[in-house]
Fold this protein.
Amino acid sequence: IPVYHEATVANLLEICLFHRTSCEEAGDALVDLVDYCVRKLRHLLAWPNDELVRQIASAKECTEWDSVRILDEQFSEVEFQVCMCTISIVRF
């Protein structure tokens, strides 16, 4: 559940920082935000490419997964989405 909250906050920051006035008003909080973004980008660069892009052979293969494997896949997907949001945040 904390990963989903992190993804939601990252998405909200991405939306809010789109406007120049919010970037100007953020002040010293931007230092902490840049630190967070750097940590996420470093995590993204440390991920092996074969784990970033995984092809699922068929729907039958997915039905054979246990609940732990499903949660691991969802965690990886959400973590990747958060890393993509941080790229957009750094752009602003």
